[in-house]
């Protein structure tokens, strides 16, 4: 059976969607001299948009997927290119506003936009039991084929999205559906093990628990009877029954095995044959993949990294970037055959930050747009700075002298977030004071870097399982230390993330620890600082024993990707609007300290949950959560992560559903002790309960 649309679907409505006016066409920023001048291009005139609020796309196995469509009026007489966003985040209510912001970016300018809930999510049929399942990707191929066959589509399809939608865009592109001509993935990863929310440098990440708990809720939320019809409750119970102990699944795969390789495009970049535009913000760790992926792909490709976080560019306004201009140019070029000039411009555009985000907070980060015509760039050259005795960081190599570092202090509370929130870190001096630190002399002039810094360490540990974290900071003339980039490695993964091996206590190893991709300008008079520690809590679950690291100074070094700026740089052709805040600032809390050396992050939200009303659908969503991350300093086996969450959906008396779900992980020297739970209520009546305890062996973790 071919995918089909149900013309009798309930709730179909058509209305005009008016986008905001075109932004002023001011130009800003620096860029390289282009090989050929790109032609000037302007957004096409805005046109009315027809919206299909509820559509059903039927899969070959009979499962119907819920969709919303935004179709330019011109598509009624002249088919247009169409862009798919395909995620599990409730298009009918909780993601409605964001979807409409995307639609306003595309549809008024002649590009159709199709938003589909993945099977088992939102109002779509079927069930879901993991990220990026075989069914999910197979459905994507059928959806793309369906889109290409519609009378309003010219046969050319694109795919875009952030986070989940960016990751599955890459995965679907690697399957080569014929109609897929280009993708625009944002906030994505090429390796599901090392670059997603699971493992940090081969160590169990705090986000494996945090995201795992959130995802349990995504798997179990009910369909809306207003759209799904009278069968909604049976479908909800089917979802609940299919909900797995997902954190157990992820925590049981502690190596880069076939489970993680499936869907990791790093396994075979050449599988992707369509055009790719990678986009992200420096406040998002997913920006780390852009440089590497641009280098490895062999298709028409571009990259853009701006001064924002894990958010759509059209919702972020720092430096006034008019994202509509750039995205419409991309789709008009690849889906409509219009020469917009976008492919004549540099391969990589990046915002070179002149200060770090927490340093600037609550104001926006200052900086300059820079560009590289190709990536890797010949203008970026590695400069080696040696970690010398006396805490000196210098180009001259010092004596090869060992130094011991005892990792019995908690380091990482100034970098307690992997993602989300602003700022994502704090001033680093408290962690620097508990680390092995190397400082450069004050810089006589500014120093600009673009790329991946890399630590090259000759190091030993006194235990078979140990960790090493490296932070690169800028120390201002006032003595404040601000995080520029960092890297982390479970040293048992020093040679392979597929087949780790224990350390031989006391034996020295030459290891490389890549730091996150970054563009940053160090100010004149500042110092560069390298800070080394034996862990990074709470980002990574600590090793089972306190470890002492021994570093050979002199031979150990940091390779810095120094960018040599051209004499003349070309302008950035994306129009600029008035600057503004990217989001409402939210100050991250510090941990609390308790008796006996206890350090904890705690939040209590279940007692006072928050409600949101969705005016368009009449639904009310109420949510709350309690969360604790705690450890006793010097006792790594006391580490504990706990989360208990509640989500309630209701509308009058017809629909009142609550899910209560969570997880708790503790450990011994040899195991992770995990509990997961899911409880569901229809009104006050319990309709489902599953509690899953698990003991998982630590695999050199």
Commentary on this structure:
By secondary structure, the protein is an alpha+beta fold. Among the domains are: 380-563, Jelly Rolls; 592-697. It is built from twelve helices and 35 strands. The strands form seven sheets. Strands 2-3-5-4-6-7-10-11-12-13 form a ten-stranded mixed β-sheet, with helices on both faces. Strand 8 (199-200) and strand 9 form a beta hairpin. The radius of gyration is 26 Å and the shape is globular.
Keywords, please?
701 residues, alpha+beta, Jelly Rolls, ten-stranded mixed β-sheet, eight-stranded antiparallel β-sheet, 15% helix, globular
Ordered list of secondary-structure elements with their pairings:
Elements: E1 26-28, E2 49-58, E3 64-72, E4 80-87, H1 96-106, E5 112-117, H2 134-149, E6 153-162, H3 164-173, E7 180-186, E8 199-200, E9 203-204, H4 206-220, H5 225-228, H6 232-242, H7 246-252, H8 258-261, E10 275-281, H9 289-296, E11 301-306, H10 323-336, E12 348-353, H11 357-360, E13 367-372, E14 380-388, E15 392-394, E16 402-406, H12 429-432, E17 436-439, E18 447-451, E19 454-461, E20 467-475, E21 481-490, E22 509-514, E23 518-522, E24 527-533, E25 548-552, E26 557-563, E27 572-576, E28 592-593, E29 598-604, E30 610-614, E31 619-632, E32 635-651, E33 655-667, E34 671-682, E35 685-697
Parallel strand pairs: 4-5, 4-6, 6-7, 7-10, 10-11, 11-12
Antiparallel strand pairs: 1-27, 2-3, 3-5, 8-9, 12-13, 14-15, 14-26, 16-25, 17-24, 18-23, 19-22, 19-25, 19-26, 20-21, 20-24, 28-29, 29-31, 30-31, 31-32, 32-33, 33-34, 34-35
């Amino acid at each position: 059976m071919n995918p089909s649309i149900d013309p009798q679907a309930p709730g179909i409505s058509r209305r005009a969607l008016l986008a905001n006016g075109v932004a002023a066409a001011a130009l800003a920023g620096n860029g390289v001299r282009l090989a050929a001048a790109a032609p000037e291009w302007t957004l096409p005139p805005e046109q009315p948009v027809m919206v299909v609020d509820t559509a059903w796309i039927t899969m070959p196995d009979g499962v119907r997927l819920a969709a919303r469509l935004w179709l330019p009026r011109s598509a009624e007489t002249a088919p247009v290119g169409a862009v798919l966003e395909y995620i599990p985040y409730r298009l009918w209510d909780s993601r409605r506003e964001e979807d409409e912001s995307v639609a306003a970016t595309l549809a008024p300018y002649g590009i159709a936009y199709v938003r589909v809930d993945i099977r088992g999510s939102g109002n779509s049929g079927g069930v879901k039991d993991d990220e990026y399942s075989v069914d999910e990707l197979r459905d994507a191929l059928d959806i793309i084929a369906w889109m290409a066959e519609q009378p309003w589509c010219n046969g050319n399809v694109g795919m875009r999205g952030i986070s989940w939608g960016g990751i599955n865009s890459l995965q679907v592109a690697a399957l080569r559906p014929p109609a897929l001509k280009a993708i625009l993935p944002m906030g994505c990863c090429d390796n599901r093990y090392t670059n997603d929310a699971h493992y940090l440098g081969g160590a169990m990440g705090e986000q494996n628990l945090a995201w795992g708990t959130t995802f349990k809720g995504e798997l179990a939320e009910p369909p809306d009877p207003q759209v799904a019809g009278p069968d909604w409750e049976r479908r909800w119970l089917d979802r609940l029954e299919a909900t797995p102990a997902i954190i157990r699944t992820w925590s049981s795969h502690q190596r880069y095995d076939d489970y993680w390789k499936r869907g990791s495009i790093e396994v075979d970049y050449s599988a992707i044959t369509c055009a790719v535009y990678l986009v992200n913000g420096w406040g998002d760790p997913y920006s780390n993949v852009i440089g590497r992926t641009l280098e490895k792909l062999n298709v028409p490709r571009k990259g853009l990294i701006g001064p924002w976080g894990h958010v759509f560019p059209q919702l972020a306004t720092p430096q006034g970037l008019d994202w509509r201009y750039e995205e419409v140019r991309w789709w008009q070029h690849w889906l409509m055959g219009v020469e917009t000039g976008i492919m004549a411009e540099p391969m990589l555009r990046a915002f070179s930050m002149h200060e770090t985000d927490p340093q600037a907070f609550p104001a926006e980060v200052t900086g300059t747009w820079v560009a590289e015509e190709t990536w890797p760039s010949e203008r970026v050259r590695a400069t080696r700075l040696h970690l010398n005795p006396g805490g000196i960081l210098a180009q001259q190599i010092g004596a090869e002298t060992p130094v011991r570092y005892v990792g019995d202090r908690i380091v990482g509370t100034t970098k307690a977030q992997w993602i989300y929130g602003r700022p994502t870190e704090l001033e680093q001096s408290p962690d620097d004071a508990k680390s092995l630190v190397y400082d450069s002399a004050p810089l006589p002039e500014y120093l600009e870097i673009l790329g991946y810094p890399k630590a090259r360490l000759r190091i030993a540990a006194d235990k078979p399982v140990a960790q090493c974290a490296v932070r690169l900071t800028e120390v201002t003339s006032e003595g404040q230390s601000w995080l520029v980039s960092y890297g982390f490695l479970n040293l048992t993964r020093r040679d392979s993330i597929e087949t780790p091996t224990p350390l031989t206590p006391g034996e020295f190893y030459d290891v490389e620890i890549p730091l996150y991709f970054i563009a940053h300008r160090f100010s004149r008079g500042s110092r560069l600082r390298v800070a080394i520690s034996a862990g990074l809590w709470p980002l990574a679950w600590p090793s089972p024993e306190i470890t002492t690291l021994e570093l050979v100074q002199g031979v150990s070094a940091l390779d810095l990707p120094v960018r040599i700026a051209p004499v003349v740089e070309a302008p950035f052709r994306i129009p600029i609007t008035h600057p503004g805040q990217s989001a409402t600032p939210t100050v991250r809390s510090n941990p609390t300290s308790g008796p006996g050396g206890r350090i904890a992050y705690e939040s209590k939200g279940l007692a006072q949950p928050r409600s949101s009303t969705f005016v368009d659908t009449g639904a009310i969503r109420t949510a709350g959560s309690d969360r604790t991350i705690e450890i006793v300093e010097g006792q790594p086996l006391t580490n504990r992560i706990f989360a208990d969450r509640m989500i309630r959906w209701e509308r009058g008396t017809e629909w009142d559903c609550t899910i209560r779900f969570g997880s708790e992980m503790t450990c011994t020297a040899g195991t992770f002790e995990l509990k997961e739970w899911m409880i569901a209520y229809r009104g006050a009546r319990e309709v489902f309960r599953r509690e899953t305890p698990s003991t998982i062996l630590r695999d050199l973790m």
